[in-house]
Amino acid sequence: MREILIAIGEDPDRDGLRKTPSRVAHAYAEMFAGLRVDPAQTLTTAFDANHDEMVLVRDIEVASMCEHHLLPFHGVAHVGYIPGMHGRITGLSKLARLVEAYARRPQVQERLTAQIADTLERQLEPRGVIVVVECEHLCMAMRGIRKPGSRTVTSAVRGRFKTDARSRSEAMSLLNLHR
Ligand SMILES: Nc1nc2c(ncn2[C@@H]2O[C@H](COP(=O)(O)OP(=O)(O)OP(=O)(O)O)[C@@H](O)[C@H]2O)c(=O)[nH]1
Ligand SMILES: [Zn+2]
């Protein structure tokens, strides 16, 4: 960080910047903490329930860092699944923890979306999984093409949401309720 400050023509020893390298180190430890988390472990709390319909948690806040520019992208994730044959469900907060575990890494939005879906599919063996992520990328807003306000939407569907158009459109209509 000190080298970067020098490279941009700053004085790393001036008052306001002296502690900046260590501040950034602490901020990075927090923003990339997902690299030290096993995402599968976030789903170990599971309950048996007689629920074989969709469970959908909408508007889970996402703050991640694009791996190309190390600039933030932020927005929301919607995570849904249809419990499997044995009706195993997980705690609702665990879906948000799963999002965090993958978001707090250098990422691209497509991979973030697919990793959340694949881990849910592997760990819960549900009938279907749907993940939709909508984010604004600061590397497109603050620099480069400079298009603030554009949002990128990515989705990953597995199982029944992939094979059954009705399940998929039910999920999509639930996602659109608030618009
Ligand atoms: N697919 C995808 N692309 C991303 C994501 N985050 C950033 N990017 C893009 O990654 C690309 C990197 O392109 P490069 O040409 O290597 O880098 P660059 O010259 O800085 O590109 P510009 O942003 O167009 O100025 C850019 O088009 C970014 O918009 C992401 O999550 N998914
Ligand atoms: Zn970028």
UniProtKB/TrEMBL annotation:
Its EC number is 3.5.4.16. It catalyses: GTP + H2O = 7,8-dihydroneopterin 3'-triphosphate + formate + H(+). The gene is folE. It comes from Longispora fulva. It holds the Pfam family GTP_cyclohydroI. Pathway: Cofactor biosynthesis; 7,8-dihydroneopterin triphosphate biosynthesis; 7,8-dihydroneopterin triphosphate from GTP: step 1/1. Belongs to the GTP cyclohydrolase I family. PROSITE patterns: GTP_CYCLOHYDROL_1_1 (PS00859), GTP_CYCLOHYDROL_1_2 (PS00860). Keywords: GTP-binding, Hydrolase, Metal-binding, Nucleotide-binding, One-carbon metabolism, Zinc. One of its GO terms (cellular component) is cytoplasm. It is an enzyme of class 3 (hydrolase). Homopolymer. HAMAP family: FolE (MF_00223). GO terms for biological process: one-carbon metabolic process; tetrahydrobiopterin biosynthetic process; tetrahydrofolate biosynthetic process. SUPFAM superfamilies: Tetrahydrobiopterin biosynthesis enzymes-like (SSF55620). GO terms for molecular function: GTP binding; GTP cyclohydrolase I activity; zinc ion binding. Residues 1-175 form the GTP cyclohydrolase I domain. InterPro entries: GTP-CH-I_C/QueF (IPR043133), GTP-CH-I_N (IPR043134), GTP_CycHdrlase_I (IPR001474), GTP_CycHdrlase_I_CS (IPR018234), GTP_CycHdrlase_I_dom (IPR020602). This is GTP cyclohydrolase 1. Zn(2+) binds at residues 66, 69, 139.
